[in-house]
Amino acid sequence: MTPTDAKRPLQLNDQGQLRHFLSLDGLPRELLTEILDTADSFLEVGARAVKKVPLLRGKTVCNVFFENSTRTRTTFELAAKRLSADVITLNVSTSSTSKGETLTDTLRNLEAMAADMFVVRHADSGAAHFIAEHVCPHVAVINGGDGRHAHPTQGMLDMLTIRRHKGSFENLSVAIVGDILHSRVARSNMLALKTLGCPDIRVIAPKSLLPVGVEQYGVRAYTDLAEGLKDVDVVIMLRLQRERMQGGLLPSEGEFYRLYGLTEQRLALAKPDAIVMHPGPINRGVEIESAVADGPQSVILNQVTYGIAIRMAVLSMAMSGQQTQRQLEQGDAQ
Amino acid sequence: MKLSIHGARLIDPASGLDQIGDIHIDGGRIAALGAAPADFDAEQQIAAHGLIAAPGLVDLAVSLREPGYTRKGSIASETRAAAAGGVTSLCCPPQTKPVLDTTAVAELILDRAAAAGHARVFPIGALSKGLDGEQLAELVALRDAGCVAFANGLAPMANSRVLRRALEYAATFDLTVVFHSQDPDLAEGGLAHEGPTASFLGLPGIPETAETVALARNLLLVEQSGVRAHFSQLTSARGVEMIAAAQARGLPVSADVALYQLILTDEALAGFSSLYHVQPPLRSRGDRDALRAAVQSGVVQAIASHHQPHEADAKLAPFGATEPGISSVELLLPLALSLVEDGLLDLPTLLARLTCGPATALRLPAGQLAVGQNADLVLFDAQAQTLAGERWLSRGGNSPFLGHCLPGAVRYTLLGGRISHQA
């Protein structure tokens, strides 16, 4: 007897549609493509004079951020508002938990306010799974980043950026550079690229910033930036946190920049039409040179715009998946 | 009181006894095996045909949570759960509140255990005061109060010098030191075995070297000091290799593993279930297989439950915010029998690791089925099944095995000739 947790598709309803969005692990290629297609259609909404569609009218979306964020929080807010939802945002890191309230109690209180959807960011890996398992079943949970584990909307907005600039994934070489070990963005990007059929995924970092067994994602690990960047179509730079200088992971920001900073000279090793991405906020002169960040190959600000469309897609799809599931269950009950 | 048990298959791993026969008990001790003594007039009879009678199980690590953490368990509740798991003797670790570093706490535990009467309790005292790793606890006074060994748990000693002196002091009085070898710096912040699973889940890893680095230092200091040493809760293939090498060199060290480490691997963490959050962590399949082999060969002579009951709230949070540990003593025998069912061990070897193995490791007067010994027995049906959790006595419901159908069922546990559990 070897008991193991049956891996149930927590984030899908009985028809295989999204009802939560927790991780890209286990999601089929068709679903990721559907998210990208839906986001493409919402990009057009953002270009209109009146930037609203009524898909979430009458619904309450609750942004619960247990960890600081500016970009992700505001783009989720904007996405929900453009879908005509009522939106409340709580920065819980500064409120309830410091008063000793447990996570489950905080969520119960929000449920009591009749929220239909939680967008959650939390410093613990697995927090979004935990919340999805413990909220009442009709509330959709969207992962806005959990620990080092996953940041699936960032992963999908990066995929949208790549698809819009490169057309498809089938013949691409993509390099992800920097602090892979601590990065939920890197994990979500590796999963998404693999699922979407990208044949050459590279991660580039010193060994102290590479997770054990990173090859399981179907990627090749490089420790030399020049070697890893050779002829790639896409360069995704990751943010380097200041605290990585402690504990022996890296000697200094200066040495990191010297070895792994993206300069114009190094970018020249990639294909001439390669694009440069970064989830933000960028550290100029730490992982990326200003001339590259602001240069013609940079699509960093496009990513922000696409982020709103991706989040609109995910919010509307998860809400619809929840409604379908409720109808299915009511049908079963009758 | 006189009691006779009829027709059981008697297995005593210590003596190699394995035959069908009767047991006759008088005054809490085994008076005879086989034919009854002359004029033996049993007041109580147990018909045990088809059952196996073995020495009551000896569990080297059962957190009783009292004093200090009675929301998680009490001496009465957890020793009662232990009896249901077939246990008659158990050691409790010193992580109570206050810490088991004074004779008063030892006496409290022993008094309440005696009052409850479900199992013999052998406390393990703190090696350092408050487990702070700085100053030695009064080891000899604690021994005289009933502590059978000393440990600092996963809390480190301040440095190698303090540890060395503590071992020399303990060696002076022939005291046993129990090691939980995990380097606190290498393990810092870690939640899971450092490997592909932890990487995938984004859980900070605890490398195998957290165990082996600490183990290497501990073994060298044990050798230098000559202290009696027991290595508890081994988790890695390299770790048991190091114990085997030390034993081959003639160093008289013993070792145990947690039963759940012989069954589960880090792959169980895939759904972030906090029920699998344990310290030291569940490791890889290769590690688990090496632990199983070490149990079979006898390099690891004891299997312990490493029972850690928790209240529900302690496990109701994202993985990293939960408390580690599994409530496991209540299923000790049926869960261990799953190793026999899976063909990993034969029954007498398994029972040796659960009775005389642990008893000799810490020199406990227990674990034998022989004339003159305490009548501490477990009678179980190897053909029946236990539905885990159908009846649950531990205060901690934090077991990933609840709902599983496990092989074997404890029918009676006898403590000093008295029935401490019957199902």
From TrEMBL, chain A:
Any Gene Ontology CC annotation: cytosol
Single annotated GO MF: aspartate carbamoyltransferase activity
Binding site for L-aspartate: 99, 184, 239
A Pfam family it matches: OTCace_N
Positions contributing to carbamoyl phosphate binding: 71-72, 121, 151, 154, 280-281
Gene Ontology biological-process annotations: 'de novo' pyrimidine nucleobase biosynthetic process; 'de novo' UMP biosynthetic process; amino acid metabolic process
Keywords, comma-separated and alphabetical: Pyrimidine biosynthesis, Transferase
UniProt KW Transferase keyword: yes
Catalytic activity of the protein: carbamoyl phosphate + L-aspartate = N-carbamoyl-L-aspartate + phosphate + H(+)
Listed transmembrane segments: none
Gene3D superfamilies linked to this entry: Aspartate/ornithine carbamoyltransferase
Keyword field contains Ion transport: no
Enzyme Commission number(s) of this protein: 2.1.3.2
Superkingdom field: Bacteria
Pathway listed: Pyrimidine metabolism; UMP biosynthesis via de novo pathway; (S)-dihydroorotate from bicarbonate: step 2/3
InterPro entries for the chain: Asp/Orn_carbamoyltranf_P-bd, Asp/Orn_carbamoylTrfase, Asp/Orn_carbamoylTrfase_sf, Asp_carbamoyltransf, Asp_carbamoyltransf_Asp/Orn-bd
Sequence ranges assigned to domain Aspartate/ornithine carbamoyltransferase carbamoyl-P binding in this UniProt record: 19-163
Residues in Aspartate/ornithine carbamoyltransferase Asp/Orn-binding domain copies: 171-317
Role summary: Catalyzes the condensation of carbamoyl phosphate and aspartate to form carbamoyl aspartate and inorganic phosphate, the committed step in the de novo pyrimidine nucleotide biosynthesis pathway.
Assembly and oligomerization: Heterododecamer (2C3:3R2) of six catalytic PyrB chains organized as two trimers (C3), and six regulatory PyrI chains organized as three dimers (R2).
HAMAP family (UniProt xref): Asp_carb_tr (MF_00001)
Stated family: Belongs to the aspartate/ornithine carbamoyltransferase superfamily. ATCase family.
Name this polypeptide is given: Aspartate carbamoyltransferase
TrEMBL record, chain B:
One MF term in the entry's GO annotations: allantoinase activity
Pfam families, per the entry: Amidohydro_3, DHOase
Residues in Amidohydrolase domain copies: 341-420
Keywords noted in UniProt: Pyrimidine biosynthesis, Zinc
Secretion signal span: none
Cellular component, GO annotation: cytoplasm
Superkingdom, natural source: Bacteria
GO biological process: purine nucleobase catabolic process; pyrimidine nucleotide biosynthetic process
Name of the protein described by the UniProt record: Dihydroorotase
Organism for this UniProt entry: Pseudomonas linyingensis
Lineage summary: Bacteria, Pseudomonadati, Pseudomonadota, Gammaproteobacteria, Pseudomonadales
